[in-house]
Amino acid sequence: MIIVRTKAELINQISALRKQNKSIGFVPTMGFLHEGHASLLRQAASENDAVVLSIFVNPLQFGPNEDLDRYPRDEERDTALAEENGTGIVFIPSVQEMYPDKPLTSVIVNQVTDRLCGASRPGHFDGVGTVVSKLFHLVTPDRAYFGMKDAQQVAVIQQMVNDLNFSVQIVPCPIVREPDGLALSSRNVYLNAEQREQAVILSQSLQQASVWMNEQDMTAEKLAARVKEEIAKASEAVVDYVELLQFPSLQLPEANVSLTTLNQPLILALAVKFGTTRLIDNRILEAKGANAHVQNDDEIQAAPGNRNGSELELCR
Ligand code: AMP
After folding, report:
1. Sign for the pseudo-dihedral over CA of 142, 147, 151, 156
2. pLDDT tens-digit profile, the chain (316 residues)
3. Which ligand 1 atom lies nearest to the CA of residue 185?
4. Which ligand 1 atom lies nearest to the CA of residue 149?
5. Fewer beta carbons within 10 Å, N or C terminal of the chain?
6. Exposure pattern of 79-116 as b/e (b: 16+ CB <10 Å)?
7. CA 150 to centroid of ligand 1, rounded, Å
8. Which residues have CB under 6 Å of ligand 1?
9. Where are the alpha helices (DSSP H) in 99-219?
10. What is the pTM of this model?
11. 144 has which bridge partners?
12. Among the atoms of ligand 1, which is closest to the Cα of residue 177?
């Protein structure tokens, strides 16, 4: 495995791969890697000749009062985990290397960013779109792997790829969870013991919602309200948002309509703070007439094929 820190070194490595006609799978991250990141690397390794991992805590996607300065870092552990999981090249640029000057250009994706983290973290997805497009230009991946943990990010990146004709297939990957259900996150290390114990309420309430959604006359509004009530039982939890939206458009479903009459993929997404730690989680729910059922995380796979302008699809 090769570690590169400059754009010039990365471009050299990529052109060497291209000369050998090797396909490239790309996994962009902010480091402090865990099993969720490892699962993306393994999937990339199984579908491509070479895997490129980037580790970059991107200042553009953090708001002024967010955790940029204290974001956890451990390069030694990250590179060991990367190597164990099939990575060929790790790109670890400095902020100066990525942004030698303040960028005057940004990639702004509208509409899919109107709600959820797009609403509660203004500018966040402009930072994500900008850095991911810079990385796509450098790495020129055939496929890029993103976790459904950040489902809105998946929708934003797919929209950007469609709109700007990036020649890359976006591969959404299932959420990896702790045995008790908590979604793995680099930010989980901030939780104290009490908060960690209470945080299980997030995945539990999403699970319960998958049952509640089958109740007659259950609407998106009622379901979100019920999940909020459930989360409020955890004394340290402060809800940022709980919303049920269509996926991947991330628009509201028709108001006051029984979920059992809808026939479209939905996402129940939430952001909840425990102390200063903000956690997100979500679950894809498929409302299908009276037979509404939950789509398990491990049923979520990338749509096969089409690298150009492909639609984000959930296969089962
Ligand atoms: P981050 O380093 O948090 O920016 O995440 C880098 C990539 O890993 C993103 O595509 C995330 O969605 C993905 N990821 C983070 N946590 C998980 C998880 N628990 N399961 C699957 N993918 C994840």
Report:
1. negative
2. 999 999 999 999 999 999 999 999 999 999 999 999 999 999 999 999 999 999 999 999 999 999 999 999 999 999 999 999 999 999 999 999 999 999 999 999 999 999 999 999 999 999 999 999 999 999 999 999 999 999 999 999 999 999 999 999 999 999 999 999 999 999 999 999 999 999 999 999 999 999 999 999 999 999 999 999 999 999 999 999 999 999 999 999 999 999 989 888 999 999 999 999 999 999 999 766 544 444 444 443 333 333 334 456 543 2
3. 16
4. 12
5. C
6. bebbeebbbbbbbbbeeeebbeeeeeeebebeebbebb
7. 7
8. 29-30, 36-37, 39-40, 146-147, 149-150, 173, 175-176, 183-186
9. 116-120, 124-139, 151-164, 193-198, 200-212
10. 0.93
11. 26, 170
12. 19
Q: Among 316, 230, 315, 235, which Cα is nearest to 281's?
A: 230
Place of tokens 């090769």: 2
Catalytic residue positions?
A: 37
Closest to 6 (Cα-Cα) out of 81, 96, 71, 79 = 96
Residue with tokens 């990575």: 87
For the chain, list the domains and their CATH numbers.
2-173 (3.40.50.620), 186-296 (3.30.1300.10)
b (16+ CB within 10 A) / e for 44-72: bbebbebbbbbbbbbebbbeeeeeeeebe
Residue 81: its H or E element: helix 75-84
- 297 vs 177: CA distance, rounded Å: 10
Both tokens of residue 39?
A: 């699962």
- Nearest protein CA to atom 11 of ligand 1, as residue: 147
